[in-house]
User: Fold this.
Amino acid sequence: HLFDAEKGFLGGYAIVTDAGLHVVTDAAVLAPGAQIEARVARGSVRATVTEVLAAGTKPASKPQKKAKPRK
Assistant:
């Protein structure tokens, strides 16, 4: 089955391109500072990459507060 981009956009998906207008399918081809554009259902956004995460990794999160000891 072919991906229907318009339906995908409505489902929250985006098509991301690099500065050379190449579709980005692997985050590893980007580096911090790279310029990207994401096309969404209603328009597009331009952004600068701040961090590249390997496939399957989760973004760094704020440290969680330590649980209080039970009494």
